[in-house]
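REQUEST ID: PR-0412
SUBMITTED BY: lab tech R.K.
PRIORITY: routine
TASK: structure prediction, single protein chain
INPUT:
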Amino acid sequence: MLKAIYELKSPDIEKAAHAIAVGQSVGNPYVRNSRETKALVKKHAATVESIEGGKVTVRFPAVNFGPRDGISFMMSVLMGGQMDIDLIEGCKLLDVEFGPLLRRFSGPRFGLEQIRQMTGAVDRPLIGGRRAGRGLPRDGRGRRGLHQGGRDPR
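STATUS: complete
OUTPUT:
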């Protein structure tokens, strides 16, 4: 089980909480396809554990997370699509409780110091991904700003 605590802004907190739980675990809360059986949805659907004002606790089943999924998958579940839900005006992830789920993950292959040595980025920021800087204005201002801020141009 993975427990996420959110602060929500919505005209209907209860519906918004339900939409997050279902939407971030088994997809669109209002549409099921023929392959999504009731048993499958029951096994994988997250549930709303509590609502206190705008503070919402959602429990995600451990079966939804495997050791090969990695942290990026987990982050996309926790904060990947909430702002696409019409009911939600604001969503802030306040806390995450991993429980025994954390034991499934062996951790990163390399530590920060090893990554800095491998990249030669000992005294500047590390910004990951091939896409860093893409989508910025093509006149060079955005990328130039990243470079001036210390982003490695390689």
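NOTES: The two ends are 39 Å apart (CA to CA).
REVIEWED BY: pending
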